Amino acid sequence: MIGYILLGIAIFTYIIELRKISLMIFFSFMLNGWCVLTDDVLGSKNYDLALIYIGFNLAYSTLFEKKPPRIPDMKLRFWLVLFLLFMLLDILFSLKHYQFTTYQVIQGCRASFLFLSYYILKDVDRKDFIWVNQFFFYITLVTSVLYVFEVLFDWHLLPYDYDNVKIDDFTGIKRYYNSPPLLYWFIFVTILSPKHLKSYFSFPGIFILVIALIATLGRTQIAMTGIVLALGLLIQHKAKSMLLVTFVTLVLYIPFSGIIGLRFAGKFEKSTESEIKSIFSGGIQETAYYGNTNDVGTLTYRFAWIYERASYLANRPFAENLMGLGLISDSQTITVHQRYNFLLGLPDQDGDTTQMTTPDISYGNLFSKYGYLGSFIYLSIWFYLLFFFIHNKRDNDYSFLGLLIVLEMLLLSFSGTSTSDQGNLIYPFMVYLLVHYKKLENSRQGFLTSKPQDV
To answer: N or C, where is the chain less crowded by C-beta within 10 Å?
Structure first.
């Protein structure tokens, strides 16, 4: 009920042109309510609310606004339209070939249309983007503090399934997976380009955000963020940023070196060497064949999850390889288990193996849902954004920061749902538009300065 009230407010404020409020609520839907307004709290799925908002906004703007295009974005639109065409074809394929019901297909594909959020953002004023980004910084700070207290003191401050929290084997600390969705973005911004926040809290915020990152206890998250940040420092080549990172590292090293050391050293000592040997000696195939995950590392398991489904499709019609396993949700347990019997996957609420999705690797989700063709088209959206930001990285800070966040998402997709979760496209889209707005502004200024003056 709360969710639909917020949706009504978002639509109403859009109509009466209080666009900042409307945009803020829409971003909240796309980012799973900041891990505060979760699906359970709202009484409805955030992504469903976001999709309804997108549908309303597209209809309203088409009928009543009809704004001319403001930026040259045909290359990005090419991939977006191509993926839209693929999704329409995949819906027909799921209905006709797999014989799924209309309800099952709608339920299974609705979150696959959140990429249309770009068409909402392209009409947003640049100043509104800047305002929401600054506002979201404070939201991220507050939720980061709550998250740190949740992890370190086991205080139940955020909505979460606390009954199923597991203790990390190496640190003895409980692991929670509800870290703030914009944590990585604001780590990059506060360290490398705090001027965009215009906040007195940007410097102390660095410590809060980095501690929240450490509190995730995720080796991949910590390591990849460190690598991407180091790359950012090399590209930016500012002594001030380098000194800042050095200072923060020295300050946080003493209190948190034990946790980081146990998390990394314990994991490496236990599995890394044997896992590398396992991968190169057929461990992926063996894991997929026998479904035994007790003695394998996480990386082997993730690749084996994909390999098992790829092996199945290799013996299926070519069209299934192109289109995937069908647009159906794991919640349709009877239909899914009648058709598929994969051994690898997390147990569902009934103790059966989840067949269609995994929280462990984005590429597995893309492959099972979209097949080879759809995965290629969808990932092309991400890689187009990456190459766009690389090409423009020297032009302005937003392009530089966009490069870092897209690269972070692509790297984290090997250990989570960072790219397969379409809600995570919302910020790269926003930064992409900000870069275009800045380029247009520079070109106008260049035109005015080059214009002959009357004597």
So the answer is: C
| CA angle (28, 420, 437) in 5-degree steps | 60
pLDDT in tens, 132-149: 999 999 999 999 999 999
Q: Which DSSP symbol is given to 174?
A: E
pLDDT tens-digit map of 164-173: 788 877 777 8
- DSSP output for 317-363: -HHHHHH-S-S--TT-HHHHHHH---S-S-B-TTSPBP-S--SS-HH
* Cα separation, 346 vs 164, whole angstroms: 13
In sequence order, what DSSP letters do the residues of 38-92 get, joined into one string? -HHHHTS-HHHHHHHHHHHHHHHIIIII-PPP-S--HHHHHHHHHHHHHHHHHHH
3-state secondary structure of 155: coil
Alpha carbon separation from 347 to 16, 306, 310, 362 (Å, rounded) = 47, 17, 20, 18
Q: How many CB atoms lie within 10 A of CB 149?
A: 15
Q: How far is CA 33 from the centre of its chain?
A: 13
Whether residue 348 has pLDDT greater than 90: no
Euclidean distance between CA atoms 150 and 154, whole angstroms? 5
**3 state SS of 167:** strand
**Residue 182 DSSP SS3:** coil
Report CA-CA distances (Å) from 212 to 150, 167, 202, 285.
10, 17, 15, 37
CA dihedral over 216, 217, 220, 224, signed as positive or negative:
positive
**Computed over its alpha carbons, how large is the radius of gyration of the chain?**
23
At a CB cut-off of 8 Å and minimum separation 6, what does 327 contact? 90, 91, 94, 100, 105, 108, 109, 112, 369
Residue 32: which of 216, 210, 183, 167 has the closest Cα?
A: 183
Distance from C-alpha of 75 to C-alpha of 337, rounded to nearest angstrom? 40
Domain map of the chain by residue range?
A: 1-68
8 Å CB contact between 431 and 405? yes
